[in-house]
Here is the input.
Amino acid sequence: MKNPVNRTTRAGGTRGRWTRAWAVAAASMLISAQTVSAQDWNWSGAAGDGLWGTGGNWQQGTPPPPEAQGVFLGGGTTQTIAAGTVENPGTANDGVNTFGSIFGPEFGGTLNIYGTLNYHWVVAAVALDPNPAARSHLNLFDDGRITGVNMGLGVTWWFLAPFASMNLYGNSTAVLENLWMGGHLNIYDNARVDVTNLVINADLDLYPVSDGTRLFNIAGGTLAIPAGMGEAITNWIGRGIFRAYGQRYATNAFTITSTDTNTIVTVPALGGAIERIYLGPVPELIAGEFHQMDLLADFPGFSGAVVNGVSPGVSPANLPGTPAFQSSNPNVVTVNDNGLLQALNPGTATITATLGDLTSTNAVTVTVRPRKAQLVHRYSFNEEGGTTASDSVGGSAWDGAVFGSATLTGGQLVLDGTFGFVQVPEGVVSNMDAITIEAWASFPNPVNPMSALYGFGALSADNMAGANYISMIPHTTENGSQVTFGMGDPTVAAPTPFVLQAAMSASPLDGLMNVHIVAVYHSLSGTISYYTNGVLAATFTENPFVPASFKQARGISLLNHVLGANPMNVIGSSLSSELFLNGSIDEFRIYEGPMSAAVVRANHALGPNQLIGTNQDVTLSVELSGDNVIIRWPIDSALVNLTSTTDLTGTWTPVNGPLSIVNDEYQVTEPAAEAARFFRLEE
Here is the structure.
């Protein structure tokens, strides 16, 4: 009997389902833990002028004094510290109590500083919503100044909510002992930021805090950080999160000066007005993918500054207008005001842009290719007995090892739910920006709750629970089923992030025989799709800012990054070794890329023993039968996406009716209509 690699059996109950609600709960616990007393100050904004220094804007009737302990700005509110005003909340620290904790700007709030803000302990600038319009902003203008011990920019030691920006304009300055870096830091004009200790925890390189959420943008100003950090800066430049005027990987643009106490970073001055604007290149996109486009500008002293996006590389005050983008074919590609592209359908579209009276000197043609999944591993379990499950597509290097009570019988992997699974080699889903998992399985008896059809990822170091993984749960503790993408280690206490993205169906799979299961992890579009028997059962969708920003910074999808080397991969079990599946699996396939809904339907019709054909030269036949139109084409076709239009010059849309196989032909039945309707096959 083989022994599984790096797996242990542990006693105890099953793990519950984790969701993003942990962050909201953390915020609630944080606020409720603060006992409102005479030393806590709460913003009301009742005076209506938005000024920090107006007593009527505070529930206590006066601005927070040096004795203030907690200052609560409130979510989505705006405060302004006027020029010439000095505010000192909590600076009267007595060495016993903690004074000067400012909770905000938070959850879409804004704090504008034209004067001076001195605080003692912490400012927490946080937001949970990735929507750019919902970011929190801490802005310093003109000669504004902020000083204090801890600045939590999107991340603190107790809370993760990274969609926050700190923007310094003019001659403003920030002097901080500790900067916790999870959001965007933009140092524009002649501004300066001095940091005694810069905190970027490598363990926090996962959503919600990742290289898709944090950004240093040195845009004319100066960043002074501790001595000896030149190597770290080089690393950040290579990761695309340390930028000069928004330009990524701009190693030669920075001047890095080392002293006994500081590493000082500057960039060249722009040197005058914009000379021209132009669009950066765009790679081929997959239908559904989001991509952040760059509008670039050349100045006399610097070329290739990025002038669009959530954090423009150049201060908006130095631009002649607001960027605007146009798509020649919105049915193929749309583009928003920030330059975020969404690939909708196969085809091409031309993108142009303007900035005030300036027009981009080039136009970029964007090509969108169909969603396509390439089969890379196939386990059919046709062996009779033995301890090897062969990979007929990837080859013997990717064969699986059968462990415990699992058996290969009658062309099935049979699992009794006690201690049986197939372990497949490390790296089986590595280096993939999108992944599709497909299987046919039977569950004649009640399924062990929270056992998994598969689990690919890693194990936590402490208690061997799953970490950084993808999985499929046929029967959840909520009596449903779900396809999941878990980021982080759920066994580690906050603020180390663990977020579960799940496409959840209200229906468990108990009692179903030969059920067709497909999980599509299309990380470039921020979606997870879960199909059963050819029909979409559930989806998960996140804000496109996250997948687009992460790939822009790192060049790979968040899914690709999180799974990494995926050292532990099992079929028939969760990564937590006490959760074993009871049932049988007829066929198990792994694809690189996002499978389309049309291919899912075709594979369901074909069944577990046949792959989609390779014939590209096929002809449709159409027959009128009563009030219906029957469309047929050969079963050996490589094309299975049936589309239709009423105008040959118009848009072709998918025909999503049931697909069946009759007499070795695909067949779709559609209601007849009086108007002419045209059909064609696409990839």
Summary: Residues 621-682 form one domain. The two ends are 45 Å apart (CA to CA).
